[in-house]
TrEMBL record:
This is Pectate lyase. SUPFAM superfamilies: Pectin lyase-like. It comes from viral metagenome.
Length: 158
């Protein structure tokens, strides 16, 4: 009986830790009829971030150059991973509307664990058009690794 309970516990733990990976691709299409799967990816990071809201899920950025005109709001415990730092370039033209705003916004109303990461990307402000790159507010345990963040008019990461 003890062995059965241990196996059941391990099985349930695996189910809870399962994650879904969603994709964006320069040839993708945004819209409710598209799934964000590897074979049916979305186009924009901002659009994907509005759809990917479940803890543990990931937005995978396929190789290519992307233009984002709006803000990307990332839910807690949702991560972004690029295929390659130099091969995944996201050019933002979004102009922040306040000091607490940015192109990629990780914000919670009160302190909470973000338990998330942003990895393997080049994020630009389109030659100083966009004002702020990444803004993290009231979240901890956020990793930004292997990223180049450049050409923002005010701040890269705050």
């Amino acid at each position: 009986m003890k062995k059965l309970l241990t196996i059941l516990f391990l099985f349930c733990s695996l189910l809870l830790s399962a994650q879904t990976v969603y994709y964006i691709d320069p040839a993708g299409v945004d819209g409710p009829s598209h799934t964000g799967s590897s074979s049916d990816p979305w186009l924009h990071l901002g659009y994907a971030a509005t759809r990917v809201t479940t803890a543990g899920d990931k937005i995978f950025v396929k190789l290519g150059t992307y233009t984002e005109t709006g803000r990307t709001v990332l839910y807690p415990k949702v991560s972004i991973q690029g295929a390659s730092q130099t091969g995944c370039i996201i050019n933002f033209t979004y102009v922040a509307t306040s000091v607490n705003d940015a192109c990629i916004r990780l914000y919670s109303a009160s302190l909470e664990a973000g338990d998330q990461s942003i990895t393997n990307l080049t994020i630009t402000g389109s030659n100083l058009v966009a004002t702020r790159g990444i803004w993290i507010g009231y979240r901890h345990n956020v990793d930004i690794t292997n990223c180049t963040i450049r050409d923002f008019a005010a701040l890269g990461v705050h």
